[in-house]
Design a protein that fits this description.
alpha+beta; eight-stranded antiparallel sheet; three-stranded antiparallel sheet
Length: 544
């Protein structure tokens, strides 16, 4: 029985994907990426990067993608091919450098046309949609939510008075999600699944939400989700996905960029880190904020190039509307507002952020990160960088900024040692199963030498199962073989089979002190059931 269970458990074993070991593509970009990643390349599952000089753009043509014949780290750098042009884009085919590393799922190499979750990079497209509609007088930056949704009865007048510009600049007073959803988001975040899956629909959540101060920068997915739906309401008889497709994506030829409730079949699987699969974010109500949105490096190159040269719909979204913005954690108490620790000052357009840096001048950018993907688009007066990856541990913004200069930036800080995390994985993975097996074989506990009884069969058996599910979801498997999970599952199954054999021959309770034994049993079972339910839910969310 143990062998059968072990084979079945292998289907749910942690996917121990091989981290990227090298970068292939066009030099010098591939060399620059490798230099900046340094030792942190082991934290990359898959990565796609593009870079181009803005003075090389041509409004009449664009790069669709680069053709890669191999992404193995040992292969020679791969040359891009000559590609047909797209009259709706802005970059000549030979103006873009491409580089890739790693795989989408442990097997399929990454390419410039690989679909990744965009995360919050989708916010700049929502900002562009707002700017485009303002330019055509379909709405106004000072239009309030009360004017957009006249039939809504707001509990808080401050929420009713929020303007579209305040939504688009993170100065609305709205927090990450509607009031009342905090615990649900925390629960889902702890098991690395989409936090907005069961969140209150963003517009509906406005009714009972209380606004915070509007004079502070408070990054808000709720605000941008509301903004997208408000723009759809302004346009009339349409939805956000339909509207953004019509007004921004189709005019730019961004055919691969999409809002989807189900992850694309050929999309890059999301990983918290190599070997730790997580579930994609699939709450389309929050798509304007970057949830359930997917794109490719090729599409984002088209976007950034058109924004940089002013030909994109809503390109004026990059115009600064707020200067010297003080963001939480950026300035210290003795620094001027809007100045970061490294001397860079922050200003805001509609979604776009502007960072005035000592090294690269004014950088216009936005990044995006969900539990299984990291994305950044950034450009200054001379150069643009786009990168997408399918690991949360990637330092995407630092990498992008390091690629903007003529010389690559300094290597990223070395990854922290995984030794403590390996111990925290191995102990709950191996100790409970083998203690359980020892109990069943010896018919006596290993440490306290108490006799086997039915209560111990139930509590220790349930505890072993719970810890097994825990390490599947919460363990660090980058440096551990997934076969250990299979072995542990087989040991638990074998021990439980022996326990069933002994069931009719052992007493219900055989503790030294009955009251304490029953108390410990109750708390042990409740803890195990809670852990089993909590982590099992996360496991099913990833695999179903």
């Amino acid at each position: 029985m143990g062998a059968v269970v072990a084979v079945l458990a292998h289907l749910f074993a942690p996917v121990r994907s091989t981290p990227a070991t090298g970068v292939a593509g066009d030099d010098p970009l591939a060399s620059d990426v490798e230099h900046i990643l340094g030792e942190r390349i082991v934290e990359v599952q898959g990565l796609s990067v593009a870079r181009f000089d803005l003075d090389a753009t041509d409004p009449e043509s664009a790069a669709d993608s680069a053709a890669f014949i191999d992404t193995d780290a040992s292969a020679a750098p791969v040359e891009t091919s000559s590609l047909p042009t797209d009259p709706l884009s802005s970059v000549a085919p030979d103006a873009v450098e491409w580089a890739v590393a790693g795989t989408t799922d442990g097997r399929t190499p990454v390419s410039p046309d690989t679909l990744f979750e965009t995360g919050s990079v989708m916010k700049v497209i929502t900002g562009m949609l707002l700017a485009d509609m303002v330019e055509s007088d379909q709405t106004f930056l000072d239009r309030t939510l009360a004017e957009v949704f006249p039939e809504m009865d707001f509990d808080d007048p401050e929420v009713a008075s929020i303007t579209l510009q305040e939504l688009a600049t993170h100065h609305s007073g709205l927090r990450a999600a509607p009031d009342g959803d905090d615990l649900g988001i925390l629960f889902r975040s702890m098991i690395l699944i989409g936090p907005y899956e069961n969140a209150t629909p963003p517009v509906e959540g406005l009714v009972h939400t209380q606004a915070g101060p509007k004079d502070q920068y408070v990054y808000s997915n709720h605000a941008f989700a509301v903004l997208g739906h408000a723009l759809a309401a302004e346009a009339g008889d349409t939805t956000y996905p339909e509207l953004v497709r019509e007004r921004v994506l189709d005019p730019l030829g961004m055919d691969d960029t999409q809002v989807t409730a189900q992850p694309p079949e050929d999309g890059a699987l999301p990983y918290f880190e190599p070997g730790v699969r997580v579930a994609p974010w699939t709450a389309t109500d929050y798509a304007p904020a970057g949830v359930s949105t997917w794109s490719t490096t090729s599409d984002l190159v088209t976007l950034v190039a058109a924004v940089a040269d002013g030909t994109a719909p809503g390109a004026s979204s990059t115009d600064v509307v707020l200067e010297d913005v003080e963001s939480p954690g950026a300035p210290s108490d003795d620094e001027p507002a809007g100045e970061t620790d490294d001397g860079a000052s922050l200003s805001l357009g509609l979604a776009w952020h502007h960072l005035d840096t000592p090294e690269h001048g004014m950088v216009t950018f936005h990044n995006g990160q969900v539990y299984g993907a990291s994305t950044t688009v950034a450009f200054n007066d001379e150069r643009a960088v786009v990168l997408m990856g399918n690991t949360s541990t990637l330092q995407e913004t630092e990498l992008a900024l390091g690629l903007l200069g003529d010389e690559p930036g300094e290597p990223l800080t070395a990854p922290s040692t995984t030794a403590p995390f390996i111990v925290l994985t191995l102990v709950p993975l191996l100790v409970p199963p083998f203690l359980l097996l020892a109990l069943m074989i010896r018919r006596r506990t290993l440490i306290t030498q108490r006799p086997l009884d039915r209560m111990r069969i139930v509590s220790l058996g349930l505890g072993s199962l719970a810890w097994l599910i825990y390490v599947q979801r919460g363990g660090v498997w980058t440096d551990l073989p997934s076969e250990l999970f299979t072995v542990a599952a087989g040991v638990v199954a074998t021990a439980l089979a022996v326990g069933v054999w002994h069931w009719r021959h052992v007493p219900v309770e055989a503790g030294r002190f009955r009251w304490s034994h029953v108390t410990v049993f109750v708390f042990s079972v409740l803890f195990s059931l809670a852990l089993l339910t909590y982590m099992g839910y996360g496991l099913l969310a990833v695999h179903l």
